[in-house]
Design a protein that fits this description.
- By secondary structure, the protein is of the alpha+beta class.
- The protein has 4 domains: 69 residues, no CATH class; 145 residues, 2-Layer Sandwich (Beta-Lactamase), CATH 3.30.450.40; 64 residues, Helix Hairpins, CATH 1.10.287; 162 residues, 2-Layer Sandwich (Heat Shock Protein 90).
- Helix content is 53%, strand content 16%.
- The strands form 3 sheets. The chain has a 6-stranded antiparallel sheet. It has a 5-stranded mixed sheet with strand order 8-10-11-13-12, with helices on one face. Strands 7-9 form a two-stranded antiparallel ribbon.
- A hairpin with a 2-residue loop joins β12 and β13.
- The radius of gyration is 42 Å and the shape is elongated.
- The N and C termini lie far apart (85 Å).
- The N terminus and C terminus are likely disordered.
Length: 493
């Protein structure tokens, strides 16, 4: 910088002049003090053999020189470094504000509204580089403010890539600064994040004088790295906000599609169910055939409900809309569930073994509990090749502890952490070609169990089968009295 300025805002020559002035003033004051003492004391105290006046003057001067020097230095420092202190306060305040700002609107408030007043310049503008183009800059403005992008030519773009700052107009005759001059810009500060250009900061003319004070340029140079980092964060923030908005729109479209498909499927299922009932009454059907038909319709209905339930469960319910829990006996619920699965289980050579105390009662959101038990039993039957599915329940520490054990192939250790993840099907699951699925069952079951303030987990799994456990709050005597008896809801209700 050729001794012009330092990065703290104080000219080197000014520092030297301040020190010289301090020393000179100190010498003059001490000399005057010395002469005064000599003129007063020497005539009275001097003797031919002891110049006592001179000695006392020297001692007093030596005693007072340090405090006087310090006070003089302090006074001159306050006078000469006032601008430096102001710059330091400005840098601290602006830097703290930038570190707590992510949105482009916040940067606009700090750098366009506040900083020009502190720097005493006629306004400022802030542009964000629009990747991947290296010539198009988007104006960072307040919300709902329309603006045209700034398109700079190649020469200006190259200068911005390498310059520390630019004063407009420059000595470069091959550069047309019209796009920036039209915006009222006289000083251009390229903003970088690392070595990558991310934007430009433009300042209007100085309020006083034709040239920018050195303090202004120094403050801008010191702020440039922080502003560049903040601008890059704001750009990432804007991108994430846009992606989130697009995801919400896609999610809304997906939800509307699933709802539409689900409702469209319900109509033919209802028609099919009524037609089967009418045919059974008029022509008669064997019990086995009728049971198979009803089971198939029930499974199709459960599949539709499963898809709709998964879609509705993507968004967590509000606290005020949490589903109510009611008492329900587990033995009748599981008996009816087993009846629905008997034809499928018999076809695969699977038997049911149920051990549930008749009076064991849980507090649960009944539709969610029914759906969760359906998913778990469906999994146990679907992935079993013969063997027994054992369902047992007991009261334990104020909770109903329910276990469903199968004799299937088991789940590998490396896949157990993702067992309840939506759309995930492990290698052992995919290996069973006769068991198609989307990988939604256990994810729906977990959400439904949690809706009843319960928990679900894989207790054990191996070559001899797996055991799934559920813990849900048990109904107390007070619960039974409050609800005037026990609900016995069916699977198909």
């Amino acid at each position: 910088m050729n001794g012009r300025t330092t990065l703290v805002g104080v000219d080197q020559r000014t520092r030297f002049a301040g020190k010289a002035l301090t020393i000179g003033t100190l010498v003059l004051l001490l000399s005057a003090f010395y002469l005064l003492l000599i003129s007063v004391l020497a005539p009275r105290l001097d003797t031919p053999w002891l110049p006592l006046g001179h000695t006392l003057a020297a001692v007093m001067i030596a005693t007072l020189v340090v405090p006087i020097r310090n006070r003089l230095a302090l006074g001159y420092n306050r006078l000469l470094h006032r601008e430096w202190q102001t710059s330091q306060v400005m840098l601290r305040d602006i830097g703290a504000s930038l570190s707590h700002t992510l949105s482009p609107e916040g940067l606009h408030s700090i750098l366009v509204d506040d900083l020009p007043q502190r720097l005493r310049v006629q306004g400022a503008t802030l542009w964000m580089l629009e990747p991947p183009d290296d010539r198009t800059f988007v104006l960072v403005s307040q919300p709902n403010t329309a603006s045209q992008p700034l398109l700079v030519n190649g020469v200006i773009a190259r200068r911005l890539m390498h310059a520390t700052y630019l004063l407009i107009p420059t000595a470069d005759r091959d550069i047309d600064w019209t796009p920036l001059i039209e915006q009222g810009v006289r000083l251009v500060l390229p903003l970088r994040a690392g070595h990558q250009l991310v934007g430009i900061y433009g300042c209007g003319p100085a309020l006083r004088g034709q040239f920018y004070p050195e303090r202004v340029i120094n403050v801008l140079l010191m702020l440039a790295p922080s502003v560049g980092s903040a601008l890059e964060n704001a750009r990432a923030y804007t991108k994430i906000a846009r992606l989130n908005r697009e995801l919400r729109e896609l999610d809304q479209m997906k939800a509307e599609f699933i709802q539409s498909v689900g409702h469209e499927l319900r109509t033919p299922l209802t028609t099919l169910s009524l037609a089967m009932q009418l045919y059974d009454r008029q022509a008669g059907m064997t019990p086995a055939l009728a049971n198979i038909a009803r089971t198939g319709i029930a499974q199709l209905q459960a599949l539709v409900d499963r898809v709709l339930a998964f879609d509705l469960g993507l968004a967590p319910p509000a606290a005020e809309q949490s589903p109510p829990t009611l008492p329900i006996r587990l033995a009748p619920l599981l008996d009816e569930l087993m009846d629905a699965y008997l034809p499928i289980a018999a076809a695969k050579g699977v038997r049911f073994d149920i051990h549930i105390p008749p009076e064991l009662t849980a507090m649960a959101h009944i539709p969610s509990l029914c759906r969760a038990l359906h998913e778990i039993v469906d999994n146990a039957v679907r992935y079993s090749i013969g063997g027994t599915v054992t369902i047992a329940a007991q009261l334990h520490d104020g909770h109903v502890l329910l276990s469903i054990a199968d004799e299937g192939p088991g789940i590998p250790q490396e896949e157990r952490d993702r067992l309840f993840e939506a759309f995930y099907r492990g290698s052992s699951t995919r290996a069973l070609a006769a068991t198609p699925g989307a990988g939604l069952g256990l994810s729906i079951a977990r959400r439904d169990i949690e809706a009843s303030n319960g928990q679900i987990w894989l207790e054990q799994s191996g070559p001899d089968g797996s055991t799934m456990c559920i813990a849900i709050p048990a109904a107390t005597f007070t619960d039974l009295l409050m609800h005037e008896g026990i609900r016995e809801r069916t699977v198909n209700a």
